[in-house]
Design a protein that fits this description.
It is globular and about 35 Å long. β2 and β3 (35-43) form a beta hairpin. Helix content is 38%, strand content 29%. The chain is α+β, with helices and mostly antiparallel strands and 82 residues long. The chain contains four helices and four strands. Strands 2-3-1-4 form a four-stranded antiparallel sheet.
Length: 82
């Protein structure tokens, strides 16, 4: 997640994650010059399908002044396999 910092921005994202049955395993957040970035590692073992989960979370981007990008761990595992 990247965007303009404001009150409750992280709460919006984590609340939606919980509503979608995602469980946060790790989170890293940084605020610099009024902007924030956050990386969340989420356990998705309780969801049925990744596609709808991704679409629902990324839909938050159009509502606020931040952008949510959801990527599956398999992308990173494939990138780092040599």
């Amino acid at each position: 997640v990247v965007g303009r910092n404001r009150a409750f921005v992280l709460a919006e994202i984590t609340t939606r994650l919980g509503e979608l049955q995602g469980n946060i395993l790790d989170i890293s957040q940084k605020i610099v010059g009024g902007y924030f970035s956050a990386i969340l590692v989420v356990d998705l073992s309780q969801i049925e399908r990744f596609g709808p989960f991704k679409a629902e979370l990324e839909a938050l981007s159009s509502q606020g002044d931040y952008r949510v990008v959801v990527q599956h761990a398999r992308i990173f595992q494939a990138m780092h396999r040599v």
